[in-house]
Please model this.
Amino acid sequence: TWNTWTYGGGWVGPTTTPADEFDGTACVYMGGNDAAGAGLNQIVFGLPNVPYTVSCDSAVNNWWWPAAEMRLFFLDGNDVILASSVTNCAAGITAYDVGTPWSNYTMTATSPAGTVKVKVEFACPAGHGTIRFDNAVLTAPLVYPTISNVYPDGSSLMQATNALSFTAASTATSIDAIIARAGG
Model:
C-alpha cells in the first residue's frame, strides 16, 4: 500500500492522461507551487547488510523548476532513520520552463546494521511544477533459509509422533533474529 503526503497545497494522484503516460499504463504525478510539495512512500520488511536497488521511470513537466527525488530510507524497529540515499530525477533541468522526458533512474544502497524496515519514497519536495513516476521496483538479493531434518517426513503413512521438528539455517542472518522480528 502506498501512502501519500502533501504540504503547503501540494498535489499527488494517479493519472491516465495518455500524453502524461510512459507506457500506456497509469502513472503517479505530484507537485507543488510556492513552498509546497508532495510524495508517496511504502514501507517493507528489511534486513541489515543487504544491497537494495530501487528503480523507476520519471519525467518532469516543462513549467517552472520542480524537484524530483527517488529515496531509500533504512529504519530500525522504532522507525528511526539509520541511513538514507537520494537520487535527483530532475537533475537534467537546466533552466525554468524546461522539463525532462521520461528516463529510467536506478539507485542501490546497502542497509546498515539494525535495519528492520526499508522505506521507498518518490517525492516533489520543493519547486514549482509537476513530476511523474512510473514502474517503480525495489529489489534485493534473496537468500532463503534452508530447512532440513523434517520429521515427520512422510516416508511412511503413520509416523509415531505428536510434534513437528526440523532444522533451519540461514547464511543471510541468524534464525533467532528472523524469529524475533516475526514476533515469535
